[in-house]
Write a structure and sequence with these properties.
The chain is mostly beta strands and 193 residues long. It has two domains: 30 residues, no CATH class; 139 residues, Sandwich (Jelly Rolls), CATH 2.60.120. The protein has one helix and twelve strands. The strands form three sheets. Strands 2, 6, 9, 11 and 12 form a five-stranded antiparallel sheet that branches. The radius of gyration is 33 Å and the shape is elongated.
């Protein structure tokens, strides 16, 4: 006998048997009574605030000597990451993983009669608690003296609590920041983990 095709609408002589058949062919899906609520579990850890960011830019024609810090003059937006335009230093109070992106318009300050074209470079360093190079970027081609190029880069890095970071001119010549329309540089940094 096939229970799926059994017509239970016909009168059953045994009501108990009809109830069993109805349940077997999935016609009695009535939920049972709800049990008592269990005890509440312990509160989990608070969510980590990843809303830490910095956005700075520069509008100057400032000079940056070889191996000196690049200093951006305008802090735009800062939240839990601070920036000091007098030193060029970003400060990160909380440990975590961060991402930084930059572009910097630069001019080769070498003299036309003494040197040829050079690739111009910028490095991003952790400076506190110790000096660690995190990323290096350079112009994609060599730049003649008095000519300009753009250096861009990005990095994802681990930052210890209370660490500090700077960008350095690692070119073999001094450079100038050069505004392109309005900005000569832009940097954004944010916590990702």
């Amino acid at each position: 006998m096939n229970l799926e095709t059994l017509d239970t609408n016909i009168s059953c002589k045994n009501d108990c048997l009809c109830e069993v058949v109805d349940c077997l062919v999935d016609r009695c899906n009535k939920p049972g009574p709800t049990g008592p609520t269990g005890p509440t579990g312990p509160t989990g850890p608070a969510a980590e605030n990843l809303n830490a960011f910095a956005m700075v830019h520069d509008e100057t024609n400032s000079s940056v000597p070889m191996n000196e810090a690049v200093k951006f003059n305008i802090p735009n937006l800062l939240n839990e990451i601070s920036y000091d335009p007098t030193s060029g230093e970003f400060s990160v109070p909380k440990a975590g993983q961060y991402m930084v992106h930059w572009w910097i318009n630069v001019k080769n300050k070498g003299k036309l009669d003494t040197c040829g074209p050079k690739a111009l470079g910028i490095e991003f360093h952790q400076t506190v608690p110790s000096d660690i190079r995190i990323a290096h970027s350079s112009t994609h081609n060599e730049v003649y003296p008095c000519a300009t190029g753009t250096i861009s880069g990005n990095a994802i890095f681990d930052a210890p609590a209370n660490s500090k970071f700077k960008f350095f001119n690692t070119s073999n010549v001094d450079i100038d920041l050069v505004p392109n329309d309005l900005y000569s540089a832009s940097v954004s940094m944010n916590r990702i983990n």
